Amino acid sequence: MEANTKMLATEIKIQKAFIKLINLSGFDKLTIQKLCQEAHISRGTFYLHYIDKYDLLNHYEDEIVANISEIFKRFQKPQLNSAIQNGDKENNAFFQLFKYLYRQRDLAALLLNGNTTKIVAKVKRLIEEVLVEPQTSQSTITTQIPAAFAKEIVSQGIIDLITFWLNQNPILPPREAYQIFQQSRSLTPQQLTQIIFKEAPQGDRNEKTV
Question: Which of 31-40, 66-75, 91-100, 136-145 has the lowest mean pLDDT?
Fold first, then answer.
């Protein structure tokens, strides 16, 4: 029990140091020496846990992706284009996703922002798997847009919204962020543009209408 507590404390120190140093200088300039100094651990302690900084990065990516995958398996996945007003949010996979990412917001934002990581592609694949699941109600839509393009528009849009949310300061609570996400699923680009125009300062509106 004591060993597990000590190991968890070490993991927390490493993660905090990892986040701080990458935010300051980027992953490329991260060294094990700097990481150990910031975490106040020895190099030997670090190498008991990880091979190198790439192994550490992969560990964080895999952990977040695995937890998101588990959320999508455990909880109900409603249609993305339906705004649930009175639904059971606690049993909603996407609401649980927002709650989880909020708890891991510093690490999640760091990984989603980074060019070094592959987490965006991995999370997009999980979202795309949800998109191809049978929907409870389907309408026939006549369009020339290929399915691959439609899938990319939806999945990348969700990733972009989540990344934007995680980078806000202060960050919205997960319940509020989820409500924005859910409402946005039922709005067209034209309707979203109207919201932007409505909230724009009067001077900006005049410039756009000239």
Answer: 136-145
Number of other CB atoms surrounding residue 83 within 10 Å:
14
Three-class SS state of 92:
strand
pTM score, whole prediction: 0.84
Question: What Rg do the C-alpha atoms of the chain give, in angstroms?
Answer: 21
Name the one residue in this structure whose structure tokens are 């935010």.
Answer: 23
In angstroms, what CA-CA distances link 20 with 30, 41, 45?
A: 10, 15, 19
Q: What is the C-alpha end-to-end distance of the chain, expressed in Å? A: 70
Indicate the pLDDT class of residue 156, thresholds 50, 70 and 90: very high
Distance CA 73, CA 70 (A): 5
Looking at the chain, the number of H-run helices and the number of E-run strands are 11, 0
**pLDDT at residue 143 tops 90:** no
CB 79 within 8 A of CB 186: no
Q: pLDDT class for 86, splitting at 50, 70, 90? A: very low
Residue type, 158: I
Q: What are the structure tokens assigned to 121, written together?
A: 């592609």
Amino acid identity, position 155? S
How far apart, in whole angstroms, are the C-alpha atoms of residue 66 and residue 166?
A: 19
Query: Which residues lie below 8 Å from residue 77, measured CB to CB, with a gap of 6+?
Result: 93, 94, 130, 133
Q: What type of residue is 130?
A: V
Rounded Cα distance between 110 and 151, Å, is 25
